[in-house]
Design brief:
This protein is α/β, with parallel strands linked by helices and 176 residues long. The chain has one domain: Rossmann fold, CATH 3.40.50.150. 21% of the residues lie in helices and 22% in strands. A 6-stranded mixed beta sheet has the order 2-1-3-4-6-5. Helix 2 links the parallel strand 3 and strand 4. The chain is globular. The protein starts with 23 loop residues before the first helix and ends with a helix.
Length: 176
């Protein structure tokens, strides 16, 4: 694989350490948690072995990208109703910002729990998306990782149960 994508300027590691393929069974379960309707257009921007893409609902229009197969998501110009994938962790901020530009209804990503920082969540809200669900599950043994993975679902509709607290100075000064 080329170590640099000349269009985006992103450097790729020769042996990336943030590639964890999603087991089919887990991908099926996670897709069921997303409110996909029959007329929705879905995209898997980081297809990998296709665990998500191959399990999208049969009747939906589906698209995919995979840099290893010469299709770079960062070259995309099309809008999708849903963007769902297991992206590389090393480019999370860039991926989230780009996804917000090309998603119409929502997006869902499988990421380490620590990736959803206050800063990233506030940035996503600037694009009009809100964290709607967080799904925790037992990490697949084949991943052999020590951090918790989660499936984060964002939509244009604000969840009443998930809120970012704005008055950080008053509360944090008393807590820390």
């Amino acid at each position: 694989m080329n170590n640099e994508n000349t269009l985006t300027g992103v450097r790729y590691r020769k042996d990336p350490n943030d590639i964890f393929y999603t087991p089919e069974k887990l991908a099926k379960f996670l897709i069921e948690m997303v409110n996909i309707e029959p007329n929705h257009v879905i995209c898997d921007p980081f297809k990998g072995k296709g665990a998500f893409f191959n399990n999208f609902p049969v009747d939906n229009e589906k698209h995919w990208f995979e840099i290893a197969e010469g299709k770079d998501f960062f070259e995309n110009t099309k809008l999708y109703d849903w963007i769902i994938s297991n992206p590389p962790f090393s480019m999370t901020t860039k991926i989230l910002e780009f996804t917000c530009l090309y998603s119409k209804i929502g997006f869902a990503y499988l990421l380490p729990s620590y990736q959803m920082s206050y800063f990233r969540l506030k940035n996503i809200e600037k694009y009009g998306f809100y964290l709607n669900k967080i799904l925790y599950f037992q990490n697949p043994k084949e991943w052999n990782i020590g951090f918790q993975m989660c499936f984060f679902i964002f939509t244009k509709q604000r969840s009443e149960s998930i809120k970012l607290f704005e008055e950080s100075k008053s509360i944090q000064s008393r807590l820390f």
